[in-house]
């Protein structure tokens, strides 16, 4: 199941000691190394991208929109476009949104090198301010964790209200655990994974400090309860590797 793989530089953003560690931002520096960063930081990412694209394409409907909210470099959007070729659908539009101008700029460059088969629109905006409509599939790929916790229910409810009958939400997140022993073990395993991918302890610790200022994870149970409370008919855990999960939620 081939996917579009954007060219990327090696992530060395935290390789040197920093006198001050600012909160993590999706700026031009991060955009330049993002694909390398996420593939070396998220266990199972190489599997997640084509599988999320396949799920979105599988549940796509004629005359509908597919949203990639927090699209970063557009990798999943372009993978969905590719996966849609296996289904005989008409009038599908892909809408990819990110609030980082550097990411959207790189999305457009990536799309220009890709043979698109469907209409794709890249939008630089806050996903909390975007109207969701005629959605047959919505992807949130490690995006909700960067949204202020107080805004998460409201955002997901707006997504639900803008989804067609039979539509799906594909939600991938880093999670935490109520049991502190399990939480500690999962963090330790995640850090071991990053070390195995070439990150030093200095890089791991400095990036963790930067992320802790902006990335606030929920537990799996919190995600499941929230989605059920909003009205999704079913919520299924279809992927987990250490403290990274992906959920499939569907609407009547």
TrEMBL record:
Matches recorded under CDD domains: AdoMet_MTases
First-level EC class: transferase
Molecular function terms from GO: carboxyl- or carbamoyltransferase activity; S-adenosyl-L-methionine binding
One Pfam match: Methyltransf_25
Chain positions recorded as S-adenosyl-L-methionine binding sites: 45, 70-72, 98-99, 126-127, 141, 208
Residue span(s) of domain Methyltransferase: 66-163
Keywords: S-adenosyl-L-methionine, Transferase
Keyword S-adenosyl-L-methionine annotated: yes
Assembly with partners or alone: Homodimer.
Function: Catalyzes the conversion of S-adenosyl-L-methionine (SAM) to carboxy-S-adenosyl-L-methionine (Cx-SAM).
Protein family (similarity comment): Belongs to the class I-like SAM-binding methyltransferase superfamily. Cx-SAM synthase family.
Name assigned to this protein: Carboxy-S-adenosyl-L-methionine synthase
Protein's organism: Thioflexithrix psekupsensis
Lineage start: Bacteria, Pseudomonadati, Pseudomonadota, Gammaproteobacteria, Thiotrichales
Encoding gene per record: cmoA
């Amino acid at each position: 199941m081939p996917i579009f793989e954007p060219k990327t530089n090696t992530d060395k953003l935290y390789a040197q000691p920093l006198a001050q560690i600012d909160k993590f931002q999706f700026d031009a520096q991060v955009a330049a190394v993002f694909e390398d960063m996420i593939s070396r930081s998220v266990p199972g990412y190489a599997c997640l991208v084509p599988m999320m694209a396949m799920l979105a394409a599988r549940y796509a409907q004629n005359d509908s929109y597919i949203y990639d909210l927090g699209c970063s470099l557009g990798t999943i959007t372009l993978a969905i476009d590719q996966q849609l070729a296996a289904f005989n659908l008409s009038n599908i539009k892909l809408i990819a949104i990110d609030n980082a101008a550097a990411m959207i700029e790189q999305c457009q460059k990536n799309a220009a090198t890709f043979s698109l088969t469907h209409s794709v629109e890249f939008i630089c905006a806050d996903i909390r301010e975007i109207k969701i409509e005629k959605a047959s599939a919505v992807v949130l790929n490690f995006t909700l964790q960067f949204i202020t916790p107080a805004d998460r229910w409201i955002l997901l409810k707006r997504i639900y209200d803008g989804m067609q009958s039979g539509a799906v939400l594909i939600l991938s997140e880093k999670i935490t655990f109520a049991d502190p022993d399990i939480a500690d073990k999962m963090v330790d395993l995640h850090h071991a994974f990053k070390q195995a991918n070439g990150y030093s302890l200095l890089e791991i610790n400095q990036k963790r400090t930067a992320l802790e200022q902006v990335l606030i994870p929920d537990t799996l149970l919190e995600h499941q309860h929230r989605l059920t409370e909003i009205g999704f008919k079913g919520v299924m855990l279809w992927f987990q590797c250490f403290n990274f999960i992906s959920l499939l939620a569907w609407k009547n």
